[in-house]
Structures are given as C-alpha cells and as structure tokens.
Specification:
Helix content: 25-40%
Number of helices: 14
Oligomer: single chain
Structural class: alpha/beta
Strand order of the largest sheet: 3-2-1-4-5-6-11
Shape: globular
Low-confidence stretches: none
Distance between the termini: 55 Å
Order of helices and strands: EHEEHEHEHHHEEHEEEHEEHEHHHHH
C-alpha cells in the first residue's frame, strides 16, 4: 500500500514518538490508517497519512477535544500512576471503536516461561513494602483491572517486554545515557554480578510495532491480553557481550547493593525494578500473540542484529553529557580499584 492509499480508518496515538511509537506510527500508515500522533516533541510529517500535534496527552480536556474526531482506534502510550486511569478509561472506551492500553511485562511475577496467564506481582506478592508503593508494575496491573472489570468489550491490553530502538537501550537497569553514553566515551559501567546469569528478553521496536499494528481493530484481540515480544532470550551477561562487541562496552561485575547505591542511591523503585523484574528469568511464550496477528517468530529481528542496526544509526555525540550517575560510577570504580 502506498503512502497515499487509505483504508478509511483513523487511529489516534497518544505519546507516539517514543521507542515503540516511532516504528508503530509509520507501520500503521503503511497499512492504510490515517494516524494522528499526540506528543510533546516537535515533529514534521513527510507522510500525508500521518499528522503530529504537539500537546499534552495527559490533559483530559485536550483528550476530550481530540476524541470528538471519532477515531476508529486509540493506542495509548501514556503513563497513568495513581488514580489517573480511573478518571479516563470511560472517556476512551465510549468514544472509540478500539482502545489499546499499554501495560508491561513487568506486571508478571517470577514464572518461566511467561504466558498471559502467568501470575501477576499485584496478585501474588507478599512484600508489603512493595505493595504499598505505586510501582510501575503495580499501577500498570491496576489499570488492567479497571478495564477487565468494566462493562466494555472494545479494549485490548498489551504487555511489551523490554523494547529497544534508537530512543532506548537497556542493560539490566541501566538506560541509554548511562550505558551507551559511557561506552561511546570509553568509560566502563558497573553491573550487578547476580544478574549476569539471568535470562532476559529484549525486542526490537520495529517488531513490536508489527505486532501492535496487527492487533489494532482485530476483533480477535478485543477484551484480551497479549504479551508483545519476541521469544528469543539471552542472559544479561550475553547481552553485555553484544554491547561490548558492537560499541566497545567495558563492564565490571559488582555486588547488588553496591550497584543499587551507585545507580540510584538505593532508591526503592530501583530496588524493586531489579528484584522484581531484572532478577527474574524473563523467557516469553509469545504463541498467543503470534496466532492472533499471523506473524511468525522467524519474522523478527535477532537481538544482536537489531542492536547493531540501531546503534550504528545513532547521531554523533548522543548521550555524551555527564550526570550524577557517571560521577558516582567513576568514584566507585576509582575507590575500589575495579
């Protein structure tokens, strides 16, 4: 289908210029959808089927005005901590044919392999300190519960695993600025040694976009949940070696408590992300989403090749600015002589 061919359907994408959105939006346009993207970024479209609007997708009055356009589907990348989602879900479901809620694979407890029926942390955790927080994995699960207990059927919950693109790279809990940025400057990073033997799943954003786009207005996906990911998995140590081969990353394995102090000064959210996600073996059974979308595992980009593709396309000098994490990492490595 050419850029000018339309299927007559309109899709609203809230927060569509992030790691997944930058691939999803053109994928939807290629399928013939007219796509309107709401984002804080200034983006000019070169595709007649794609329109970018700079606005606050969390502003409920803004959303009400947008929904007057009667979109056939809404893909929602916005984050709704606390009770924010309770105040909006009814608005979405009443005013579109299909609402796609971005949850996360982080809602799952420790299960191997992960299926859509695997237990959720919200339901099985006994850690009262954790459950008392508004942790990402918990408020995403609470948002799911709002939809599943609603009277509506025109929703789909998607649970992406770690997704990488030029906008985002990860290694254990390190993000791109403290991972790729340091590697490109020839500076080492620290990693928790306990995590290096743990299995992880990372999916290329282009593949995640293909999966999501084929769930849009797919009646087989209505009132259901899907883990959106590849089934390929590697240990964090193997993934670290990919980064080493591709961009020269040097890493030092350290005790978990030292890592948490250096990375986030022992913050609870960092502790929980590591303990209740990155330290779980995350092996995905994606057979359900493959069946509904018609895609096959062999259609997906192998991890090493995908990382090479995205890393090789980075603009010069990206993520080169020092920050507090860099300073703490350098101080720690100097003091310990590692």
């Amino acid at each position: 289908m050419s850029q000018l061919e339309t299927n007559g359907k309109k899709v609203l994408v809230l927060g569509g210029t992030g790691a997944m959105g930058i691939y999803l939006v053109p994928e939807l346009a290629a399928m013939g959808y007219e796509v309107k993207v709401i984002s804080w970024d200034d983006v000019v479209s070169d595709n007649p089927l794609i329109t970018y609007v700079k606005a606050n997708g969390k502003d409920i009055d803004c959303v009400k005005e947008l929904l007057k356009e009667k979109f056939d589907a809404v893909v929602d990348f916005m984050i709704y901590p606390g009770n924010d989602f309770n105040e909006r879900y009814d608005l979405f479901l009443q005013n579109t044919g299909h609402y796609i809620y971005l949850s996360s694979y982080r809602i799952y407890a420790d299960d191997n392999p992960i299926t859509e029926d695997s237990p959720r942390l919200l339901d099985v955790s006994t850690d009262q300190e954790f459950l008392a927080t508004d942790d990402y994995s918990l408020y995403k699960a609470r948002g799911e519960d709002v939809l599943q207990s609603s009277k509506y059927d025109n929703w789909t919950i998607i649970r992406p695993a770690i997704t990488y693109s030029q906008r985002r790279f990860q290694l254990v809990t390190l993000e791109a600025n403290n991972l790729v940025g340091r590697a490109l400057q020839g500076l080492p990073v620290i990693l928790p040694k306990e995590a290096l033997s743990v299995q992880a799943t990372m999916s290329w954003a282009g593949d995640v976009a293909k999966l999501i786009s084929r769930l849009v207005l797919n009646t087989k996906a209505f009132r259901d949940r899907f883990t959106v990911a590849t089934a390929e998995h590697h240990t964090w140590g193997e993934i670290a070696e990919y980064y080493k081969e591709l961009i020269g990353l040097e890493y030092v394995a350290v005790d978990t408590e030292d890592y948490l102090q250096v990375r986030d000064k022992g913050a609870l959210y960092a502790k929980f992300q590591l303990a209740y996600d990155r330290m779980f073996n995350r092996v995905i059974d994606n057979s359900k989403v493959l069946k509904v979308t018609g895609l096959k595992q062999e259609d997906f980009m192998p991890l090493k090749r995908g990382l090479e593709k995205e890393l090789s396309a980075l603009p010069k000098g990206i993520w080169s600015e020092r920050n507090e994490v860099w300073d703490r990492m350098d101080d720690y490595l100097k003091k310990t002589g590692k």
